Amino acid sequence: MTGANLRPDTTAVDPFVQKMVLAENIKGADSLKRMKNVPAEMKNQLKLMHLLSYEPNIKTSDLKKITCPTLVIGGDHDVITTRHTLEIFEGIKNAYLWILPNSGHSTPIFYKDMFNQIVGDFFAKPFRTIEKTGRFN
């Protein structure tokens, strides 16, 4: 997962971004009411803004239900706070964490080659746990 959030608040979403997106939701809803033929691109953008403003609402405790290996990805300047990405990682037992430096929310686009390589390796190789003295390797 990349750029994921559990809840639509400022503990998960950058406060500036959340305020901006909420304002866009209100403005977009007003625009929709006045338009007869809403362009598909505008509808899609408003759906994304709605998601970031009001969804999801997942309990941190629900992460413990995830048992499959998971790769949690985020940018160090993502719309989703690094602290929140770490919270998701820590809540999933069999998870790897990958935070890309100098990266925003569009990590799969701006780092596509590296992203595809790492994600490909994640699916190709068995999950492993590194514990005790193995952490020095």
From TrEMBL:
<dbReference type="GO" id="GO:0016787">
    <property type="term" value="F:hydrolase activity"/>
</dbReference>
<protein>
    <submittedName>
        <fullName>Alpha/beta fold hydrolase</fullName>
    </submittedName>
</protein>
<dbReference type="InterPro" id="IPR029058">
    <property type="entry name" value="AB_hydrolase_fold"/>
</dbReference>
<keyword id="KW-0378">Hydrolase</keyword>
